[in-house]
Amino acid sequence: MSQNTENQDQAKIDFLAEDPSATDDSNDDNTPSDEQQRDDQEYDHKKENADKSDTENDDDNSDEEGGADEDQDSENEDEGEATENLKDEDFPEEFSEEDKESIKKVASDDNLSKAKSSASILFEQFLDANETFKRSLSSLFTSAFTAGLELGISFFMILAAFALLVDVLPNEYAMVLSSLLYPIGFIIVVIGQSLLFTEQTSLLSLPVLNKVEPLSRLLRLWGIVIAGNLVGGCIFAALMMGLGLNMQLFTVADIDAYAHHVLGFDWWIIFGSAILAGWMMGVAAWLVTSARDTISRIVLVTLITGSIGFLGLHHSIVGNIEVFSALLYGESVSFLNYLVFLIVVLAGNTVGGVVFVAVLKNRTFLFDIAKVKEESAEDKRNKIARLNSGEPNN
User: Fold this and answer.
1) pLDDT per residue over 189-220, tens digit each?
2) Using CB atoms within 10 A of its CB, is residue 45 exposed (0-12), middle (13-18) or buried (19+)?
3) Among 17, 21, 26, 327, which one has the highest count of C-beta atoms within 10 angstroms of its own C-beta?
């Protein structure tokens, strides 16, 4: 095979040596013409442009995908910002590290697709109450004064509706139907975040029940809120009830009728009714905290306060406006009647809000915390036991 290859190569050399033109012809055949060169250059140019276009498209697609990824990341980040994860700075200094970790486990609210847990609601109320304790006295009184004025709107609307209905319906039915306007002032107060005593009764007691604030500060805070609510309500009654009388929206007889509706019971019945009203207002504050949007809060406030008005339960701040209006403009209420009524109703609302809402809900919360602490301690003991026995710690 090697000998044949050498003979073929020698034959080619001899042929080229005899005919030098063969080399030129061979070179001419292998050398592309000018037209072919132009075609090749044009082809290479088109190919280069096509490659560049593909590269640009790939870059654009990559940018679009990157932009989509960034948008998705932004959405996830926004969703993350919407969730609430408790941090150490959210807790008062009085809480130990063990308490903080236990509360984080039971009260963190990081899933917007599920309803808030009982512990999450209670701790959020605790944080709100703790912030209220830090507000200045002038800020507290002004907010409470505003709430007293705003609740007067409810009674003004109720009285005007009652005056229209009493001419066509029996007194009892007219009073029940007009009470459906009862929630208007409460919606304004709750959504506007003014300080209302019956709403804040249970909330403000939480820092005291958890030994973060002393009882003396709670009593002082209650006193400021009550004073602001009562003064605001009395000023509204003095000004707006007189306006309503002059506009002939209602009469003095209508004011006296509502005062009799409120005062026409023995003191212990008024006290029991006030307890139930305070309980329901505490429940309303609890439900408002559990809601995640304004519409839900309005619906909840309407249902709870509308029920209080429908049942004719005794609410201290609205009742103050009702009875004080009769004291100023009516003929059937004395100052002693007004004073005794106010003391009894305030006491009943306080008992209902603190005992039936704050104490019971807070006790449930503490049981949950104790259970978490016990489980954490059990886990630690199990880990120590596995380490001592030489077993792997999973």
Assistant:
1) 999 999 999 888 888 888 888 888 899 999 99
2) exposed
3) 327
